[in-house]
Amino acid sequence: MSSYQASSKLNRAETDVLVVHCSDHRFQAGFYEFLNLSLNLDENYDLLVIPGGPQCLTLVEYLPKFSWASWKWFRFLVEKHELKRLILIAHEDCGWYKELPFHLHESSEPRPRQEEDLRRVKRALAKDFPELHVELYYAGWDANDRVTVEALSA
């Protein structure tokens, strides 16, 4: 196999930010734009991208092995990189949430379930990582298929 030489250089700057969001391909460009242009992160953040995004930190009852691995990765990043800020993003029409049993949540509607999980993660993190500033966001799209991201209150 031939090699590829990127025009990008290694980012040697320290970061104190971790972003956790879903791997859904439809949102990647919008997430990237939001993080770098709206939040001014300038491509300087750690990134944990998996189906369902932040929901991986709430799977204790349903998928304990996934939860264990997710928390292991999360703790590693927070502790080794001395992170101070966590950005959690859920999104509209998430396929992962369509597969989850309804009994895990108070609502059968996807968005309230996702918001419930985001807030549950924030509460859990406040106990173990009180110095970590946690921000919650929900992404969707408008009538022209432009990605929209709104901040959620705790």
Describe the model.
- It is a single chain.
- With 154 residues, this protein is α/β, with parallel strands linked by helices.
- It has a single domain (17-102, 114-152), classed as 2-Layer Sandwich (60s Ribosomal Protein L30, Chain: A), CATH 3.30.1330.
- Helix content is 34%, strand content 20%.
- The protein has helices at residues 28-38, 64-80, 95-99, 110-128, and strands spanning 17-21, 46-49, 85-91, 133-141, 147-152.
- Strands 2-1-3-4-5 form a 5-stranded mixed β-sheet.
- The chain is globular.
- The termini are far apart.
- 25% of the residues are buried.
Total tally of structural domains: 1
Beta content comes to 15-25%
- In whole angstroms, how far apart are the ends? 49 Å
What is the fold-level CATH name, i.e. the topology? 60s Ribosomal Protein L30, Chain: A
Q: What is the topology, as strand order, of the major beta sheet?
A: 2-1-3-4-5
Let me know the average pLDDT: 91
Describe the secondary structure blueprint for this structure.
Elements (H helix, E strand, L loop, with lengths): L16 E5 L6 H11 L7 E4 L14 H17 L4 E7 L3 H5 L10 H19 L4 E9 L5 E6 L2
Parallel strand pairs: 1-2, 1-3, 3-4
Antiparallel strand pairs: 4-5
Can I get a quick summary?
The chain has 154 residues and is α/β, with parallel strands linked by helices.
